[in-house]
User: Fold this.
Amino acid sequence: MRFVELALFLAPFVLFAAWRMTSRVSELSPRMLGVSAAVLVLLLGALLWLHREGALPSGTAYVPSTLEDGRVVPGHGIPR
Assistant:
């Protein structure tokens, strides 16, 4: 999971560097700079939200989902 997060974080930087290397224009347009900054802010916000949303409190162990009496009991955390 950390590799996916790292790849998503680094993707805009890699794409920007590739664009700069292949571009014939010598200076960066203000519009492209604004779009790049907006994408980075959105990406950072999404990463922070996903980190908070999926994290269990410290000192808890994850119990995977189980099937009990024909119904699915969702995964949850229990104190260690």
About this structure: The first strand starts at residue 60 and ends at 63. Residues 5 and 47 are 7 Å apart (CA to CA). DSSP finds two helices and four strands in the chain. The chain has a mean pLDDT of 88.
